[in-house]
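Example record for the data management plan.
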Amino acid sequence: MTHRQDEGIFRAGGVALLAAALGFTAVFLYLAVRFNYPEVLDAPAAQALPGLLAMGASGRAVWALYGLLPLLLIPAAVGASTALRTSDEGGMRMALPLAVLSAMVMMLGLLRWPSIHWELARTYAAAGPDERAVITAMFDGLNRYLGNYLGEFVGELCLNAFFVLSGRAMLRSPAFPRWMAWLGVASGVLGWIAMWRNVTDVVAIAAEVDNVVLPLWMIVFGIGLLRVRGGRS
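Corresponding structural encoding:
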């Protein structure tokens, strides 16, 4: 592969990271205003489902966009792996599939809202008490499995492993400053702590900080990939 082709991959990865960071932030803010996100993730079906339906077609479209944004992690990981594999080939060989797995499970978790939950919301609106009890059980079960276990735990576990491994590779690369490398490692470790938020309130502060650090790190990482020149590092 030529240096020019390498640089194209770096840049595509950098653009994907920037787009993901800005997209996540924009959608997060929209849902915070329209849907009381992320607090609504812990809300009962009687509150969350009518609220979801009240968002209308535009809100559903935003949720669908939110669910697809994790796929940007795939070209981002390819760019990062290409840029850093000569610095830490073994680490980046692990980092790439971890990022892909993270993207897939996070996508599955988020897409439950404009798909399965949307249909549950429509049924819930016209259902009687007995039917609503069944819908509530389905809603709670899907939230635990697709949301808490897959999207928020497995997804974040793999995503932050990708960040830690990328930061480690950056420490061995002359193409990236050491502060950037340490920021990547710190962001990943913070994410590992924050992912336990559904288990204990002890990490609540870490989770709040991670909501700020994560998009910041993705922007810094994206800019770092855009600035790589002259072949792999």
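Summary line stored alongside the record: The chain has a mean pLDDT of 94.
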